[in-house]
Amino acid sequence: MTDTDHSSPASTPESAQPASALATAQAGAGRARRGGFVPAVVLLALLALILGGALYYQNQQYRTLRADLQQQHEQSVRLVQETREQAGQALSLVQEQAARIEDLRGALDATSGQVQELDQALRMMTDSGSDLLLLNDIDHLVTIAQQQLALGGNVANAIISLEAAQAQLARANRPGLAALQQSINGDLDRLRAVATIDLPALSARIDRLSDLIGTAPLLVPDAAAHPAGQATPAAAQAPAAGTPAAEPHPAAQPAPEGWRAVAADAWQWTRDAAGLVSRDLRSLFDVRRVDDAAALLMSPDQALRFREVLKQRAVTAQLALMMRQSRIWQAELEQLSRAIDQRYDMRAESAREALKIARELHDTPIEIALPTVDNSLAAIAAARDAAAEEDEQDAPAPGDSLRDAAPSPAVAGSV
């Protein structure tokens, strides 16, 4: 017993040690299970929150997209309605325009019918109607030709008028108006044979004469003829007086030596000095024959006014050319020729050209005897008288017309 009692305390700690270890292990396992369960729960909670947020975000996006689609659908419906209304308006407008076009087409057809009727009536009146109407048209055209010849001397317009009258007679094809057609043909032949005046060419020559009057040199130099920096025409064409002409130097000419060189230099110096003295003396004196002594006494202002007066005479001559005033034409050109011959320097080419143009224009006639169309007018008067006589013969007598108008007794009784 004593041993047993002494041994039991020793055995008790050995058996209690495994039990405590098991309990510790179980407690550690419980704690481990609890430690692993908590993160899992937290993780699941986080996943649930994330999924919930995602679902909420998708729901919001879906609602926004649905609202946008609904708004676009409403806009599309409104646009379709507006388009349908515009299409209806356009359709109604097209229908109205189609109705107007139909009305216009009907009016056009009616107008075309009236025009055709009027054309036929006019053709009947022109081709087979009264001769007096045709003669009036021919008389009008021939009178226009006569006016063109009498007022402006325009042969071309007169020919055009007579050709129109000739063509109208040819279309009418009236054998009774053959004499009138022959008279018009004769007047046309005479007009075509007239020599015309080239007005543009004569006007251009007058313009050239006016330019030369303003630039050609006078006997007394002035600013108009000698602009600054330019030489006179005579000085430009001829070398200076007293200046020896350039002499050709032989290619193989030996230079003089000794006393010959001195003599050659002295002779050259003497020639140069003589040339200078001669040129100076000639510049002091200018000997020429002048018919009008007043030409050398003009001042620069008088020379300018003299040129302007001559230009005015050229303008007057041009107006006389346009108006076919032969006397004024010849008088103005004669005055221009005399003034150019007396006051301008004939040594200049421009002055000689101006005098030549003035004399040629003076000798050019501008008044030409033009034929008349009196034969055609006389033939028209004769044809009109003949047509009036035929109408008087064809017209019924007053008694005949009353007799035709009165009904017969039998007819009157029946009525």
TrEMBL record:
TM segment ranges: 37-57
Pfam families, per database record: HemX (PF04375)
The UniProt record lists the keyword Heme: no
Span list, region Disordered: 1-23, 229-258, 383-415
Keyword Membrane among record annotations: yes
Low complexity composition-biased segments: 229-256
Residue runs in coiled coils: 66-121
InterPro entries assigned to the protein according to its UniProt record, in alphabetical order: HemX
Keyword set, alphabetical order: Coiled coil, Membrane, Transmembrane, Transmembrane helix
Highest taxon in the source lineage: Bacteria
Name recorded for this polypeptide: Uncharacterized protein
The organism's taxonomic lineage, starting at the top: Bacteria, Pseudomonadati, Pseudomonadota, Betaproteobacteria, Burkholderiales
